[in-house]
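Review box. Two proteins, two foldings.
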Amino acid sequence: MGLPILTSKNWDRWLTQMKVMFRYQEVIEIVQDGLLPLDQSEAQKKDNKALFLIHQCVDDVHFEKIQRVMTAKETWDILVTSHAGGDKIKKVKLQSLRKQYELLHMEEGDKVGEYFTKILTITNQMKGYGEAITNTMVIEKIMRSLLPRFDFIVVVIEESKDVTLMKIKEPQSSLEAHELRLVERNLMKKAELALKAIHKDEDRRKDKKWKGKQSINRRKTSQEWSESFDKRGRSKLNHNQKKFDRSKVECFNCHKLGHYSYECGNGKSKESRHKEEPLTTQEDSDSEPLNLMVTVAATKSHSESWYLDSGCSNHMTNHKEWLKDFDSTNKSRVKFADDSSLSAEGAGSVVIMRENGSKAIVSNVLYVPKMKYNLLSIGQLIEK
């Protein structure tokens, strides 16, 4: 192990190390008090030993200051004076350290161990200039300058232990243990947030199943809906999408393959089919197209209009008087995209008038009293 070497930047540390070395070599009295009058021969040996240690522990710049000095005490005093200065300089430095000590507070991002090191470094420097600081003073300073998240730990320490009898390492260990728990909880919260974000992304991908359609937050105009559907109410296929194999389609009228019921020439009469079919794509080829996006007068409120919505999974209305065959036992909760929900107090069927005067029945319409709009679910219509 090498000897400590004095430079222009490590005076405080070198001073502490040299005092320990002098005590170990039993020459501390010679360095501080000089040669003793009794037993001059033994004292001279200790003085020479101390002077040798000082010469070995300084750099070239400091050695030039002491190379002509013949006693250990005089050599030591020169080094102390050149670094610590006189009494006035000591007072100025001590005042500066006191100011730093009083203004020092734990900052966001500081760890408990790092903050204890800052406090102890300043207090040791103050002790080097003659300031009397006890462990109790240091502990009280630390506990009143911690971050607010450690307040209840400080209260527990003050109530359960006598601060005047505590050592500095005792509150430090308690605070560091609490700090570790906070770090673990923050990691768990981050993991939960990441998992929640993954689930939300999956839900968004599921919601994009019906492309080109929009929720109630941005409704399409009648022109846009007419472009999305043909005159039979069927969704237009993308040019890149494969055409459906019509050879396997069975007609509901003649039960033959290769065509739909509305294309069948042997089907029922137009009038009878209008009475029986629900609100789906099964319309007579000669009937007028069903316009589901109802146009109302400016004086009519939103609560009396019907809106097509690709985002909702069920038909919904706030008009109980419109519902036929109302079933009050069919109760449920309707959940929206913002995680809010409303109560559905039952379900029934609604009769809608076509432009040609015929009627269409929309079944399984939920009664939601607090709904502001009447919604027709595109997904539910397509399923039928």
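Next protein.
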Amino acid sequence: MLFPPAGGLYTASAALVPKRFRAPVGFTVGWLNLLGQVAGVSSTEFGLARMILAAAVIGTDGAFEVTQHKIVGVFIGLLAVHGILNSLATKWLARMTSSFVFVNVGATILIIIVMLAMTPRSEMHPPNYVFGSAGIVNEAGAWPTGIAFLFGLLSVQWTMTDYDATAHISEEVQRAAYAAPSAIFVAVVGTGLIGWLLNIVMVLCSGPLADLPGPSGMSFFQIMFLRIGKTGTLILWVFVCFTAFAVVQTALQATARTLYAISRDHGLPDRGVFGTVNTKTKTPLYAVWMITFICVLPGLLDLASPIAANAIFALTTVALDLSYIVPIACRRIFRNHPEVHFQPGPFYMPGALGWAANIICVTWTLFIATILCFPTYLPTTAQTMNYASVIFGGVLTLALTWYIFDAHKYYKGPQGNVGRHLGDNALSNESSDRDVVRVVADEDEKVKTDEK
């Protein structure tokens, strides 16, 4: 197996367990991660479509009417654009992605400054509203306020997902062993801190709760409109939408690489079609467009019920976060097994600190994943049901059933791109990765080094 691999967690998880567990663990994590990534792309694109239409409502002074069909139409159009962009060569994708970082951070800081400058001090909420219980409003029906508060964490949990996206393109970048974890660390810390400050400012300047979400249907947009005015809000909103557009761009790119890796290893009933690379663009075009098509399906739930469509946000968090904790747990459970050849990389947290972080991570993820599968309103009806658990359980059950009765015959776990995969089916490394590539072999092989 090649580290870091395009499969990301899918490949890494299988390398952290004994041989007899590699296939089932790799298969389960691969499908969990793929399901979460598809829901992530779909939910972010769906949110972007709503953001664009919200701007149309304010821009026309309420003359424009938002309907479910318009939202789904814009949603599908945006996915098509992202599919085209992700069909480009990796070097062009890298250039586009590098500009997104500056827009994201710059727009966030600018919004914080403008909101504080434009909001009269007398109209700002007091500290006990921003940080205390005065600002908690239970709109979850018969659920206790504590549970309602946990439901509110969905937006945070959803935002702080897919931070492993960089790992999925690590076969296509220089010095991947350093670049991939560095990018993940900076993204998580940067997004967490700046996003936390942004949320504080937005709550501080939010005004009366009764005025939200307003004509646009989006509270964030309405708060900006209340404080900055129509023109200023629309200008800043362009950068906000551009940031969301960038998020979908990188998320779809990572999801396509996951599909590519699983297909390459015969973890899909596609005969390896999506595990091939286009000879001109050196990118997995079949995987890109298959993911683009699949991501349309969750958005169609909005035509049935907006409440049902919201399930894709919870599904993203539940599936992705559960896939994240599998390699963490495997690393600790099989740490002394002779068949597991784990070697710490440049970024590693040793000792008691590492144990504490891992235990907290696994415990919290299992807890919040369970909470986010609950219906967010009591009493529950067909319209208020949280369908995330239904979709999650249905897809995983079908996948595991197929594995038990058929796929186990030819799926032997993640194979990486070493050996037989190093030909046409290997992602082109246009940047020529000159790092030393560590190969984790089965128990009858030695851990060896392959210098590219």
